[in-house]
Task: inverse folding
């Protein structure tokens, strides 16, 4: 946890609302982005965002000093989003082999050049569509690791996975994202 | 896998399985050297490695830095302020109650 976060949380724990307001300003965009990719309804996202910070205010004195404040907040947000996370468990699909995923992502594809795929990956709307199309566990690991910059060990703890399982999920999610982008690129070329 | 080959002691499937570790700098030096030797000799893996890295970079760069929507931020401040006020009020009332 940074010195600034620790100080803000210590002051918050003593009832300093201005310090907590500063803490909220620093972290709300990240927590919102995480929840937004986790939960479909924007109103629910805002309610969960608010609840996360209310819980953080209550727990400020117990905030763990060994992890980052952002990871601590994301863990609170994840707990609060529990019912959406439970729902995702019911829609698990058959897990494809890495080779199948690789081919879907374009391994051995002579039709699209790496430059075409790189250009597709630079189009914000295409990347958003591809990320939104992923199964929730794959989307969540990408949001945590790539967008929020959560380290592997912290992500594994947050998700209740071993480090190896976390790595495997990240790898499959990256391949799946490439596959979704490729599918969108093909649709554009065919149009 | 289509176009599977073994080069520099590694198959294309093994390269595919190691791409995340390679990209994240988590391969041991000898494994890294073997993977790079394979990729130098394998057109398919070279192309796909470039695609894979570009997709991860695109995700980080395109979606990784969005600021909070001002409307969401304003609503959060208002609602959170009201809720914390209510909590502080409730705890003050409890403290003031005669024992």
Result:
């Amino acid at each position: 946890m940074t010195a600034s976060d620790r100080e803000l949380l210590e002051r918050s724990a003593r009832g300093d609302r201005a310090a907590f307001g500063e803490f909220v300003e620093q972290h709300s965009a990240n927590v919102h982005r995480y929840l937004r990719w986790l939960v479909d309804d924007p109103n629910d996202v805002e309610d969960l965002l608010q609840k996360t910070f209310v819980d953080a205010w209550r727990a400020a004195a117990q905030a763990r000093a060994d992890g980052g404040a952002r990871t601590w907040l994301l863990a609170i947000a994840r707990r609060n989003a529990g019912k959406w996370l439970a729902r995702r468990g019911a829609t698990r699909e058959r897990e494809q082999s890495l080779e199948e995923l690789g081919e879907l992502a374009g391994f051995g594809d002579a039709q699209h050049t790496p430059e075409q795929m790189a250009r597709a990956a630079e189009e914000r709307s295409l990347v958003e569509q591809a990320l939104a199309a992923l199964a929730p566990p794959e989307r969540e690991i990408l949001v945590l690791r790539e967008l929020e910059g959560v380290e592997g060990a912290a992500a594994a703890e947050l998700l209740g996975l071993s480090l190896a399982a976390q790595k495997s999920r990240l790898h499959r999610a990256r391949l799946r994202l490439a596959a979704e982008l490729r599918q969108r690129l093909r649709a554009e070329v065919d149009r | 896998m289509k176009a599977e080959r073994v080069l520099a002691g590694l198959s294309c499937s093994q390269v595919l399985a190691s791409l995340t570790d390679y990209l994240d700098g988590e391969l041991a030096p000898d494994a890294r050297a073997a993977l790079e030797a394979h990729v130098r000799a394998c057109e398919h893996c070279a192309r796909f490695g470039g695609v894979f890295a570009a997709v991860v970079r695109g995700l980080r760069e395109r979606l990784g830095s969005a600021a909070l929507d001002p409307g969401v931020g304003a609503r959060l401040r208002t609602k959170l302020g009201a809720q914390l006020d209510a909590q502080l009020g409730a705890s003050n009332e409890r403290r003031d109650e005669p024992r």
Summary: The beta strands of chain B are 6-7, 10-11. Chain B touches chain A through 44 residues (CB under 8 Å).
